[in-house]
Design brief:
160 residues; alpha/beta; Rossmann fold; three-stranded parallel beta sheet; two-stranded parallel ribbon; 5 strands; 43% helix; 19% strand; EC 2.7.7.3; coenzyme a biosynthesis; nucleotide-binding; ATP-binding; nucleotidyltransferase
């Protein structure tokens, strides 16, 4: 039976760190759904539609990766897609502590859903969307942090 994993996130914007996890997940799983969720505790720079478009552009060379948007709980989305694996990246111990809480809650809500953690490649261990936005805001070079389409979109956002 083919295995599908969901790689959830706010992806505001998608970075090479995110892509590292998605690409590595695409080698492990038959299909990976990159699902954009709105994090209520964050004020996004990009709309959900813009984020989805940037992810689609960044993953277009991965035939077993699809992109989607969801509202609500991740476990409800996973059940609606008949998926029982969540793919998450870890950068540091602080990520692990947060992810452990989320994973425990997900297991409480839906015990059949497993979370698969992948350690981020060392070259991306410092990278976050927040850092990228901060650097781009001051017109510094982010070309080695994000795909070309994201770099262009960031320049457009901060132009005004």
């Amino acid at each position: 039976m083919p295995t599908t994993a969901i790689c959830p996130g706010s992806f505001d914007p998608i970075t090479y760190g995110h892509l590292d996890i998605i690409r590595r997940g695409a080698k492990i799983f038959d299909h990976v759904i990159v699902a954009v969720f709105n994090n209520q505790s964050k004020s996004p720079l990009f709309t959900v539609e813009e984020r989805l478009q940037l992810i689609e552009e960044a993953t277009k060379d991965l035939p077993n990766v699809s992109c989607d948007v969801s509202q609500g709980l991740l476990v409800d989305y996973a059940k609606s897609k008949h998926v029982d694996v969540i793919l998450r990246g870890l950068r540091a111990v602080s990520d692990f502590e947060y992810e452990m809480q989320i994973t425990s809650m997900n297991r409480k809500l839906e015990e059949d859903i497993e979370t698969f953690f992948v350690m981020t490649n060392n070259q991306y261990s410092f990278l976050s969307s927040s850092i990228v936005k901060e650097v781009a805001k001051y017109d510094s070079n982010v070309s080695d942090l994000v795909p070309d389409a994201v770099e262009v979109a960031l320049k457009e956002k901060f132009k005004s």
